[in-house]
Amino acid sequence: MSNWFECKVKYQKVDENGKQKGVSELYMVDAVSFTDAESRITKELEDYAGLGEFIVASIKTTNYAEIIPNESGDRWFKCKAVFISFDEKSGKERRTSSSILVQATDVKDAYEVLSKALSTSISDFTIPMVQESSIMDIFGILHDFDKEPTEEEN
Questions:
Q1: pLDDT tens digits, 52-67
Q2: Residue of 135, 151, 20, 118 lying closest to 78 (CA atoms)
Q3: Which of 138, 149, 152, 153 is packed most tightly, with the most Cβ within 10 A?
Q4: Which residues pair with 97 in a beta bridge?
Q5: d(Cα 75, Cα 82) in Å, to the nearest integer?
Q6: Closest CA to 23 of 138, 136, 139
Q7: Which pLDDT does position 1 carry in this prediction?
Q8: For residue range 109-135, what is the model confidence (pLDDT) as tens digits?
Q9: Other C-beta atoms within 10 Å of 78: how many?
Q10: Which are the contacts of 22, defined by CB distance < 8 A and separation ≥ 6?
């Protein structure tokens, strides 16, 4: 299971008028601890051309059950999925909520990508919320989106 950390990064940016302006951006990293998250986000952002000096202003853990990348997407959306199951002992319907991050082009696309990803689920589900997030990018070393896990990573 991945541990995702949301990192707020502050730096100076030159706006369209040529004036410097302070900005804050959110990034997510896959890390084992807060220290590892700070180290990883610093290493990842040092490679960004034009970012210049920056500080990692805050780091917090997230509760995303899953992250669903989509090559055609350019933004990240926070989604809530509710899985519906039936408890045979009590005879009642049971609902379990999960937060899922989906990469998409707009809200409709995010809904469709999430629906397709969840279509293989054995439980019935609903998607009561899809909301654009302010996350700029996600960096995963423990979780590489582009390839299947190797034996060492399992």
A1: 789 999 999 999 999 9
A2: 135
A3: 138
A4: 82
A5: 22
A6: 136
A7: 53
A8: 999 999 999 999 888 999 999 999 999
A9: 18
A10: 10, 11, 12, 13
Place of tokens 């989106």: 145
The token pair that represents 148 in the structure block: 């299947």
Sign of CA dihedral 69, 71, 77, 81: negative
Q: Across residues 20-28, what is the average pLDDT?
A: 92
Tell me which residue of 46, 21, 2 sits closest to 153, measured CA to CA. Answer: 2
Amino acid letter, residue 11: Y
Nearest to 36 by CA among 26, 44, 47: 44
Token pair in block for residue 106:
């707009």
Give the up-direction half-sphere exposure of residue 117: CA atoms within 13 A in the CB hemisphere. Answer: 19
Q: For the chain, what percentages of helix, strand and coil (3-state, to nearest 5) are there? A: 15, 50, 35
Check: CB of residue 101 under 8 Å from CB of residue 67. yes
Inter-CA distances, 29 with 4, 15, 17, 74, 101, Å: 6, 27, 32, 17, 13
Residue 91 has pLDDT above 70, yes or no: yes
**pTM, two decimal places:** 0.81
User: What kind and span of H or E run contains 145?
Assistant: none
